[in-house]
Amino acid sequence: MSDGLITKVGKAVRFGSVVAKMDLEATSRPYTGHQDWCLWYAKGSCGVCMKRCPVDAITEAGHDKPKCFDYIRNVTTPYVRDHYGTGATPCGLCQVKIPCESRSPL
Ligand code: SF4
Ligand code: SF4
Predict the structure, then answer these.
(1) Atom 5 of ligand 1 has which residue's CA nearest to it?
(2) Which atom of ligand 1 is nearest to the CA of 50?
(3) pLDDT at position 21, please?
(4) Residue 2: which of 91, 90, 63 has the closest Cα?
(5) How far is CA 18 from CA 12, 38, 56, in A?
(6) What is the structure's pLDDT at 23?
(7) I need a labelling partner for 50 at 20 to 30 A (CA). Which of 3, 64, 71, 79 fits?
(8) How far apart, in Å, are the Cα atoms of 39 and each of 9, 19, 26, 30?
(9) What are phi and psi of 76, to 5 degrees?
(10) Number of the ligand closest to the Cα of 12
């Protein structure tokens, strides 16, 4: 619902890539679409990530990316730059303290 990808270990994860010249068997996918493991789309329940967003960028219509972008670029990014001197673009409150944070909730 928040557009974060729910993996077997949830969505509060970081991804990386390795480029290698070798033959590997493809891992089979236990889902057909990226929303299959979201309780909202699978069962019509949950919606916890909606309540976590401080600017209501997640609604029953889904994730309002421009609203999310505006908050991160114009509120949280200047805050961490001024207070901590970093170039980070933080938020992600919709990715934590939710049923799909560290597992598939189904
Ligand atoms: S918190 Fe609930 S509604 Fe939001 S993405 Fe996770 S399972 Fe779906
Ligand atoms: S990253 Fe932050 S602003 Fe964007 S949808 Fe999630 S909680 Fe809302």
Answers:
(1) 1
(2) 4
(3) 97
(4) 63
(5) 20, 28, 36
(6) 96
(7) 79
(8) 15, 34, 27, 16
(9) -75, -35
(10) 1
Residue 64 one-letter amino acid: D
Rg of the chain (C-alpha set):
16
In angstroms, what is the span from residue 103 Cα to ligand 1's centroid?
A: 11
Q: Which atom of ligand 1 is nearest to the CA of 101?
A: 6
pLDDT tens per residue, range 3-57: 899 999 999 999 999 999 999 999 998 899 889 999 999 999 999 999 999 999 9
Where do we find the tokens 């729910």?
Answer: 6
Q: Where are the domains of the chain?
A: 1-12+32-106
| pLDDT band, very low/low/confident/very high, at 76 (cuts 50, 70, 90) | very high
Q: Which amino acid would we find at residue 97?
A: K
Structure tokens of 55? 């600017």
